[in-house]
Design a protein that fits this description.
Blueprint (H helix, E strand, L loop, with lengths): L9 E4 L5 E10 L3 E8 L2 E8 L1 H6 L3 H11 L11 E4 L8 E5 L6 E2 H5 L7 H20 L2 E2 L8 E3 L6 E3 L6 E2 L15 H4 L7 H17 L17 H10 L27 H7 L4 H10 L2 H4 L1 H4 L3 H13 L1 E3 L6 E3 L2 H6 L19 E3 L4 E3 L5 E2 L1 H4 L12 E5 L7 E5 L5 E5 L2 E5 L4 E3 L5 E3 L4 E5 L1
Length: about 450
């Protein structure tokens, strides 16, 4: 593939009229090519369009100008910074954006098992994606093409980066970008609607299902009828006859194990993961792909709901004492099994639930690496995970004794066996059953 630009080629930004240089080719796609560039000693990325793409999409430049004017919704977006021209190539243009760091990997890498993130990292990625699209939609914009092709995450931390933001447009505004077929809302697939922030919600749910189940939510038993995975087949599965693979009222497209479908295309991965997650989390996907298919107006899950439940999922993680695998605290399961947490999904050892702390709106499992944040104790600081206010620590001389250390600048007041104890910053309170800790804005009770 011949490159459009050469190393060392000079370009100029339109808004600030700053000169920069192309350093190296990074990759190409349908719309153009991406290069690493140097602009005033700052390393950035430059997307340079094919002339034929510009001729196809005459609204491309106006979308870019609007995005630059509105500004970045959050720093998780690799957002357009400036439009770029090259005097010697007047028939086309490009734009500069932040360069994606090598630590960020694609969802496709996870599906190929080239990276294996923890559930904690996945829950963090789910939160960051939901929050990022929430912030984007709050600006009156829609993404139009949410898919795993434009999302990257750090498999160690779950931090995300969202690229291809030149597709972003004013919500409800007609455009030529319809989306990626596997992620399009059914009403778009069959031509009854155009992309909007509302259809973005469907695409987000598909993306999240892929993240947590390594499979598409609508690819089940009906795949056995497909002889050629062409546009007609996609239209049938994703638009004309969409059925969730875990829809208990309609099993016509149920997920099948490899015992029945040796290709795994009918949901073997999803079957393996589905039962690992707590009921409240499964219920979200069930609503998104049952009611959300039949009644999009009332059945789609809002980004604000996803981000809250992703944090709830992350706070529900605890570790198997035998193999160390992450499991989930599931209150619904405990109620239905007389308090029996069941077996570890990985090694099948019987699970022992660690202590937990219950707030008005949160239950947090107190593992050996648990941290509590302002988000958990102060309604005015929702989704503030900048600095922890507490962490679980081990007693320096008594290994079987664990405590909660005060990392904040404020004094806590703890009720230990009906005795009041002040916990100064830097000090700890023992994780004892029934202990209540007042963090100032909220009180938590330690339970076993």
């Amino acid at each position: 593939m011949s490159q459009l630009l050469k190393n060392g080629q000079v370009f100029f930004t339109v808004q600030s009229n700053t000169q920069g240089k192309v350093e190296k080719f990074l990759g190409g796609g349908t719309q153009g090519e991406v290069y690493q560039v140097n602009l005033k000693d700052k390393i950035l990325a430059l997307k340079w369009y094919f002339p034929e793409w510009i001729n196809q999409d005459d609204k491309q430049k106006s979308r870019l100008e609007e995005a630059i004017k509105l500004g970045i919704p959050t720093d998780r977006f690799l957002w357009p910074l400036e439009i770029v021209n090259i005097p010697d190539i007047p028939e086309t243009y490009g734009y500069i954006m932040p360069l994606r760091e090598s630590r960020f990997k694609g969802v496709v890498d996870m599906m190929k098992r080239q990276v294996e993130p923890s559930f904690h990292a996945l829950a963090t990625a789910g939160f960051e994606l939901s929050n990022s699209y929430y912030q984007l939609h709050s600006k009156g914009l829609c993404y139009r093409d949410i898919s795993f092709g434009n999302v990257f995450f750090d498999p160690d931390t779950g931090e995300v980066r969202i690229c291809d933001n030149d597709n972003v447009d004013i919500n409800g505004k007609p455009g030529m970008i319809g989306g990626t077929p596997d992620f399009m809302a059914p009403e778009i697939v069959i031509g009854k609607s155009h992309p909007s922030s509302f259809t973005d919600l469907y695409s987000l749910a598909v993306l999240l299902f892929y993240l947590f189940h390594v499979h598409h939510p609508l690819c089940g038993k009906k795949m056995l009828q497909i002889k050629c995975w062409d546009l007609a087949a996609r239209r049938k599965i994703f638009g004309e006859e969409p059925v969730f693979i875990f829809d208990t009222d309609d099993t016509s497209n149920e997920a099948l194990s490899k015992d029945i479908d040796e290709t795994g295309e009918c949901g073997d991965n999803a079957l393996a993961f589905w039962q690992i997650y707590p009921k409240f989390f499964r219920d979200l996907f069930t609503k998104a792909f049952t009611q959300g298919l039949r009644d999009p107006e009332n059945g789609r899950i809002a980004e604000s709901i996803w981000r809250g439940e992703m944090i709830r999922l992350r706070d529900s993680i605890f570790y198997c004492s035998n193999c160390g695998s992450e499991n989930f605290y599931d209150l619904d399961k405990l109620k239905s099994s007389s308090g029996d947490p069941g077996k570890c999904w990985s090694c099948e050892s019987h699970l022992a639930i660690p202590p937990r702390i219950r707030f008005k709106k949160n239950i947090i499992m107190l593992n050996n690496n648990t941290k509590i944040f302002p988000h958990h104790v102060d309604d005015q600081k929702r989704y503030d995970f900048s600095n922890p206010i507490a962490e679980v620590i081990q007693h320096p001389t008594q290994p079987n004794v664990w405590g909660l250390k005060n990392l904040s600048d404020e004094k806590w007041v703890a009720n230990v066996n009906n005795s009041i104890k002040e916990v100064e910053p830097g000090r700890s309170v023992t994780l004892a059953l029934g202990t209540k800790v007042n963090f100032g804005k909220d009180e938590g009770e330690i339970r076993a």
